[in-house]
Design goal:
CATH class of the largest domain: Alpha Beta
Bound molecules: flavin-adenine dinucleotide, flavin mononucleotide, iron/sulfur cluster
Shape: globular
Structural class: alpha/beta
Low-confidence stretches: none
Helix content: 25-40%
Radius of gyration: 26 Å
Strand order of the largest sheet: 3-4-6-9-10-11-12-13
CATH architecture of the largest domain: Alpha-Beta Barrel
Mean pLDDT: 97
């Protein structure tokens, strides 16, 4: 029986070769908002990888009321670039849908707290609390409605197969639709009919521009999941209204920036995140329903379709980590799908104004720039350390045709990924450790575990190059009593090498300390974190949605945090710390150290001058999975 994922489908009159779409995700654009050549290559790769439908990131229909935040459709060049994008996508029998938006409203980043953004009403800006938005007047609303129609017409003219209206997630259209952000007293505010007026006028304007047979998708949020936000019954009413207005498919989302992790999930959410909501929508409409939200496990995605919860499944993150997701499902190689670790470095880069990137797919958004080519100069390489840096370097070097041996000191590959993915709520990282381990063994790399070599043995091997990826060790601050039997290392606790009791104190409130505390709080009666800095998580550079999700997890875990406090002594029954000049005591049966990491790279110094050595990952500077993976990839790619 053909799996549901691969069955052909139809949205309006548009024929699709399968049930998997690439969810809309913004990319860096040209200065004028056109699709850049780089983003066209990025979309083309996903079309090549088998996605039946590619939905682009949002395109603003005008910059009259907002700064440029993403793509902008309207200029001659933007249409020309969109038309080239359509041609590229069509080579692979994939279809292109261009997402269009009238704007972000109160979610705008107006590049300073002094510029009031336009929105549905005079409500607070999200990014600049205290800054009030300016309500759009009726002429401006009418202009946006007209311009959305024009944008849809341009998308169709460019060769797109469909358009999607960006009506979700607390952005401008959704601000009009929701009583949380719409305080208007005219015909655009008040009842649901009035709040939906802007959205429905846009649908009508788009329909007029594209004609009766061109599919209009609508991405909307039937449930916000925040106090005062939309609840499901109203969301289902909206679904019926949108169907009646002639929309051809409903793309279902949940959340808003106040609970952003509900919209763009993080490592901390259990999969699937939104299929339940798609199933609710499906009960009340007869047009196709599209589901997203952590569906990159093909079994789960197939189940969503088989259960009838949705007609199509979309991959956001999953399309970034593995452009060939569909092709691998098709060819029976689903085991080789690169899983997402939920770090949201992709989103974080975009919000920092940097070029987009993916932690586990270094070629993402750089498909044209970072090809992996066969080498004409085959080398014998030794990789020391089987964490993400060493594994990625080994896999990429082997793919290029080098002869690669990997030595790992412990009994298994994965390195610190096992500790990072130790807690149940970090399953995504554990899954990546499992994936990369398998990938190394499938790549023709010679792996030797339990192999802790000396510099002499390495030097005797006559390697053309040694890649040192030996990771980092726990930093040990000079606290008396740190060597006691009641003190455990966070990595050992997270990998179950060490147990813990009912009263736990964690030293260090960075990412590792906070997550270790939450992990212990699942079983211990009392967990306290002592942090020297004025706040916890100050050293963490997380995307806002990961930050929110972790904060929620910590709140739910009922952990006590003592900040601005320095541990001065550890004894068999607890510890002493100083805060505000006074000494305090905490009783504990287990004390866990999470006070940072220092690079483990002594071998590099011992090998200096004897063999060509490069140091990567935490062995260079303790950092992240992204840094380790990218350094491993690039070193091997340009070798
Ligand atoms: C608890 C914890 C949570 C984390 N959470 C996250 C997170 O959520 N997101 C994120 O991006 N990053 C996270 N990190 C950081 C991330 O795991 C590391 O940055 C990453 O694993 C570094 O990869 P690496 O390959 O350089 O080193 P490692 O993963 O440390 O791997 C080094 C490997 O080298 C081996 N080795 C050491 N010495 C030798 C030797 N002489 N010979 C052979 N092998 C040797 C070790 O046994 C180990 O397997 C976390 C780290 C920890 C500890
Ligand atoms: C980097 C990034 C950019 C995104 N940009 C958009 C966008 O422009 N328009 C949109 O409707 N959704 C956007 N999203 C949300 C995704 O389309 C999708 O709804 C969400 O990521 C959940 O699906 P997933 O769990 O498969 O990633 C973005 C998500 C990411 C990660
Ligand atoms: S950057 Fe992180 S969250 Fe984003 S797609 Fe890649 S692995 Fe997933």
């Amino acid at each position: 029986m053909q799996m549901h994922l691969l069955r052909p489908g139809k949205i309006g009159k548009l024929q699709l070769k399968n049930r998997v779409f690439m969810a809309p995700m913004g990319t860096t654009s040209e200065e004028d908002g056109s699709f850049s050549d780089r983003s066209i290559a990025y979309y083309e790769e996903r079309a090549k990888g088998g996605f039946g439908l590619i939905i682009t990131g949002a395109n603003q229909c005008t910059l009259e009321y907002e700064n440029k935040a993403c793509n902008v459709i309207g200029s001659i060049r933007s249409v020309a670039q969109a038309s080239f994008l359509a041609r590229c996508v069509h080579q692979y029998d994939s279809k292109l849908c261009i997402q269009i938006t009238p704007g972000l409203g109160r979610m705008q980043l107006p590049f300073g707290a002094e510029v009031s953004p336009f929105a549905a009403s005079e409500v607070e800006s999200f990014w600049f609390p205290g800054l009030m938005c300016k309500p759009l007047d009726k002429d401006q609303i009418a202009n946006l409605v007209k311009t959305m129609g024009k944008a849809a017409g341009q998308a169709k003219f460019a060769g797109a197969d469909a358009v999607e209206i960006h009506g979700y997630g607390g952005y401008l259209i959704d601000q009009f639709c929701s009583q949380l952000w719409n305080k208007r007293t005219d015909e655009y505010g008040g009842s649901l009919e009035n709040r939906m007026r802007f959205a429905l006028e846009i649908v009508a304007s788009v329909r007029e521009a594209v004609g009766p047979d061109f599919p209009i998708l609508y991405k909307f949020t039937p449930y916000h999941g925040v106090e005062g936000g939309r609840e499901v019954p109203e969301g289902l009413e909206m679904a019926k209204m949108l169907e009646a207005a002639g929309v051809d498919a409903l793309h279902v989302d949940q959340g808003c920036y106040e609970a952003w992790y509900k919209a763009i999930p993080t490592v901390y959410q259990k999969a699937p995140t939104m299929a339940w909501l798609a199933a609710e929508v499906k009960k009340v409409v007869s047009i196709p329903v599209m589901a997203v939200g952590k569906l990159d496990d093909p079994n789960l995605a197939e189940k969503v379709l088989a259960d009838g919860a949705a007609d199509y499944i979309g991959l956001g993150h999953g399309a970034l980590t593995d452009p060939y997701w569909v092709a691998k499902v098709h060819s029976g190689e689903a085991y080789d799908i690169v899983p997402c670790i939920g770090c949201n470095e992709c989103l974080n880069a975009g919000f920092k104004g940097a070029h987009y990137q993916c932690a586990v797919n270094p070629r993402c958004y750089a498909e044209m720039y970072f090809p992996v080519t066969k080498t004409a100069d085959k080398k014998r390489l030794l990789v020391l350390g089987g964490g993400p840096a060493g594994m990625q370097a080994a896999v990429t070097a082997a793919e290029r045709g080098h002869e690669v041996e990997l030595w790992e000191k412990s009994a298994r590959l994965g390195g610190a990924l096992w500790a990072a993915g130790g807690p149940d709520f970090k399953y995504d990282v554990r899954r990546y450790a499992e994936y990369m381990t398998g990938k190394v063994y499938r790549s023709g790399v010679t792996v030797k575990t339990m192999k802790d070599a000396s510099a002499d043995e390495i030097a005797r091997g006559n390697w053309d190059k040694v890649i040192l990826a030996t990771g980092a060790r726990h930093a040990k601050p000079p606290i008396p009593g740190l060597d006691g039997p009641n003190v455990k290392m966070a990595n050992d606790v997270l990998t179950s090498k060490s147990t813990f009791g009912d009263r736990v104190v964690v030293i260090g409130g960075g990412l590792v300390g906070a997550e270790t505390a939450a992990h212990c709080a699942e079983r211990a009666q009392k967990v306290t974190v002592v942090e020297a800095l004025p706040e916890i998580l100050m050293t963490v550079d997380h995307c806002r949605n990961n930050e929110q999700a972790l904060e929620q997890l910590l709140k739910d875990s009922e952990i006590e945090f003592i900040t601005d406090a320095r541990v001065s002594n550890i004894d068999p029954t607890g510890l002493t710390y100083t805060k505000d000049g006074a000494e305090h005591r905490l009783d504990a049966d287990t004390i866990i150290l999470a006070a940072g990491y220092t690079s483990n790279n002594e071998l590099a110094h011992q090998l200096d001058g004897r063999v060509d050595v490069s140091v990567i990952g935490d062995a260079k500077v303790a950092d992240s999975i992204l840094t380790a993976t990218h350094q491993g990839f690039h070193l091997a790619r340009v070798l």
